[in-house]
Specification:
Layout (H helix, E strand, L loop, with lengths): L4 E6 L7 H15 L4 E5 L2 H13 L8 E3 L10 E4 L10 E5 L12 E6 L3 H16 L5 E4 L1
Parallel strand pairs: 1-6, 1-7, 2-4, 2-5, 3-4, 5-6
């Protein structure tokens, strides 16, 4: 599989939980469109928080998900983990880290989450450049 699309979703502010809320909304939308998702997070603490938030971010929402590595039989369309694993066959990678996602080529689409925090913006600019250096044309969506 090769990556056909890179999207940078730029939030207007730097609310404490803004990127996490958007990650949940995006995972919900992608899941409802019938795609599989891997959400890469920077730490086990963030994975745990996002796991909890996916159950509560919207009252009428249900996003079947589990933490990676999976302890039972795989089957959830949404996985959350600290690093994108080679053996997960997801279509969409949501990068909820500030690092360039090594192995991003395994996914059809990559979603980068950016808020207005200066450090987050600076790191996202570096990732944007790295994608372009690889011949891709990322799209920016200001929210």
């Amino acid at each position: 599989m090769t990556t056909s699309r890179i999207d940078f979703y730029v939030l207007a502010d730097a609310r404490e939980n803004g990127r996490a809320q958007f990650a949940c909304r995006l995972a919900d939308k992608v899941y409802r469109l019938g795609h599989t998702v891997y959400i890469a997070v920077a730490s086990e603490a963030r994975a745990s928080a996002l796991d909890d938030l996916l159950w509560t971010f919207r009252q009428d929402s249900f996003v079947p998900h589990e933490r990676y590595p999976v302890t039972g039989a795989e089957g959830s369309p949404v996985l959350i983990g600290v690093a994108p694993p080679a053996e997960v066959d997801a279509q969409v990678l949501i990068n909820f880290t500030d690092a360039f996602p090594e192995g991003f080529e395994r996914y059809e689409r990559v979603a980068e989450l950016v808020d207005a925090h200066p450090d987050v913006r600076a790191q996202s600019r570096e990732r944007f450049k790295r994608y372009r250096e690889r011949g891709l044309t990322p799209e920016t969506h200001k929210l």
